Each structure stands twice: as structure tokens, then as C-alpha cells.
TrEMBL record:
It comes from Pundamilia nyererei. This is Beta-carotene oxygenase 2b. InterPro entries: Carotenoid_Oase. The gene is bco2b. GO terms for cellular component: mitochondrion. The keyword Glycoprotein does not apply.
Amino acid sequence: MDTVKHQKKNTSALKKSKSVKNINHYTNVHGLPSIEKIVSSVEDTPRPISTQIVGTIPEWIKGNFLRNGPGKFEIGNHKFNHWFDGMALMHQFKISNGQVTYKSRFLSSDSYQTNKEHNRIAISEFGTVTMPDPCKNVFQRFLSRFESHKPTDNANVSFVTYKGDYYVSTETNIMHKVDPDTLETEKVDWSKFIAVNGATAHPHTEPDGTTYNMGNSYTSKGSYYNIIQVPPTKKTEDETLEGATVLCSIPSVDKTKPSYYHSFAMSENYVVFIEQPIKLDLLKIVTGKLRGKSISDSILWDPKLNTIFHLIHKHSGKVSSIKYLAKPLSTFHQINAFEEDGFLIIDLCASDDGQFATSINSPERASIQLGSCKVGGLGNQRHHPTRGKTSQEAVRPCLPLHHGAPLESHVQVLMLSRLE
């Protein structure tokens, strides 16, 4: 593990540039070049092109290396407000006989096609709300303000697998099944198989192919977090999510303000859901179009609330009766989770200011946040161009699994930089 001294040495190498007006960027993190280019608009490359190979690729490596992400941040004269909003671009690196070809294709989603047809942003995204169609009359534009946000199918977050098939996913109920050779796609709706209003783009898959995910549902009784299980294999060639089940449903502490989550953790026997003090104000989301506000404008941070860790046994679907509480934390991704000496141990990237989800409010600022979870600089404050001092840490919550643990256990959260 890197020492604090070594990390400080690397941190001091951070350089700033003013490539975007009034915004300073870290352009060298641990020797890595600037990542600004990955948050810039590009054209797709639908026909394979050859690449220059440095070194030698073993002959036995053969297949497609697939990646996904936002690739277009402007439609006509309109620009997206948030890095998460860019139109999905799928990348394929085909490896064969020691050579690599590359091609890419914009996902032919309903969002992409509608935006392209109107030459403007016509479908709202996470941080961008669409404005009324200028081609409509005044009365029609007024009425369109009362329409709710339709869930986007702009699956720009990641490639995932279910039953051996490849999908591109975002956080709504719509995914797209992808042919890994042609990059042709087929739309698949979670809600046609189980009662959820969306699912994460970061499922976990067991060695046998069984896949676990999470998704919210909103009912007259309140909001619920649902643990999803998808079987490992298909019964017929053309099936998709058939056989998916909800293992359990966990009610939100606040019925109208469920926690936002981007991912979850999983160990050998448990799914771990972290109910954090980043909240989705459902009333604001429902009235967002009327107020001209996006979903990201409806996310709030409440530092008065604890962070709650929910443990769900994967095989029984039973939720642990122990309520694991920790100080207010916000997290996007988990690093690892494992069971050892009567504890469930989770490594994750976290901050204590709750601003990570809303701070990437433009494609340009994404480079400030990506890769910013560091082990050695933990607890140290860094200067942020717009928020002043901030910190993001790699931390290790330790959850006791033994039956003698109190029904309300306060979780010890360790900083990885202080572990030997």
C-alpha cells in the first residue's frame, strides 16, 4: 500500500491549467495526462479502422473489448448541462491475431433519435431539462410544462452482462441489448419483468452467472429500494430478463425523499445497500418540468442524517435486523467488500460534503472529479475551483456480523491511509 509520504509526493505533482475559461483543471494526477478529452464531443467511427500496436499482443488474446460513455454534449445550438447527459457512444476494440481494430457507434436510443430529428435537446436528461418545442403555439408550449419527465433511454454509463448477453445501461428502467460484433441494439425495459422504476448500471455477477442489482419503486405507500436477482442462463435464445425476481424491498426512511445511490456492494453472502443522506426530492422531480428544473436540481444533501448500511442475505433475501449507522457520508462507487473475522468489511470512496453527485454540473468540470478518490491524501483538504476546500477519501466501514451485536450498531469507519 502507498505510504502517506509517497502519496504526498505524488499529490504535489498536480498541475493546473486554464484550458477552460475561469476553471482550473488538475491535468496530472499520479502522472496521468489530462482527461479533458473524454468529456468533449466526438464523431462516431462506424467502420473499423486499424490501430498502431506498441509491443506485442499474444496470439491467444481474441475477442471484443467494449466500452461505453457520453460522446456528444451538444445538439444543434443546445448544450447539455451535466457530464452524465451526453449522448451514449459505444466503443469496440476487436482483437485478433495480434492486431486491433477500432470502431464506435452512437447508441440509437429514442433520446438520440428524437434529439437528432429536432436538432435540439428534446428529451430531458439527469442535469438538463428540455424546453418547450418552439414549433408549438403558445398554448401548446404552456401545456407541455405540465408534462412529467419521461425516463431517458440514453444508456451511457456502462456495459453490463445478464445471462451471458451484453447490455448498455444507465439508471432508468431502459437498457439496450448489444450485439458485441455489430454494435446493433435492442431496447429492453426492466419494468416489463419486475416492479421497479429503474436499476443501477453497476450490477454484480456471481461466478455461476447469477446477477444482482438494485432498483427503486414508488408506490402509494412510499418509496422502496429493491434487491434484484437475475438467473444465470437463458431458456430460449431470444429471452432477456425473464426470470428476474425481487429478493426483498426495503422501505425508504423518508417516504417522499429516498436516497440517491449509483451502485452497491456485495460480499460472498451479502448485498450491502448504503442509504446515504443524499436525497431525491420526489415532489421537486415530479414538478421539475413545470419549474424548468432537472433531476439533478432535485437532489439535496442533509448532513443531519446518519448513513445507514443495510445487509441483505443473498440466498434468503432476508434483511439483517441490525441497523448499522455511520456519520454522514456520500459515495458513488465501492472498491471492495469481504467477510473476515466476524465482520463485513467494505472499502469505498466517500466524501463528507455530499456534493459529488451534483458537482459534475458541466462536462468541463468532470476532469476535476474523475480519479479523485485517493488513499494517501485522506482527510487532507484540497482546493476546488468553485467550492473552495473539499476532500474525498478511501474509507473502510467495518460491520459486525455476530449475533451479539446491538440492534443499532454504530459503524467504525477507518481511513485506508492509516491502516498498516
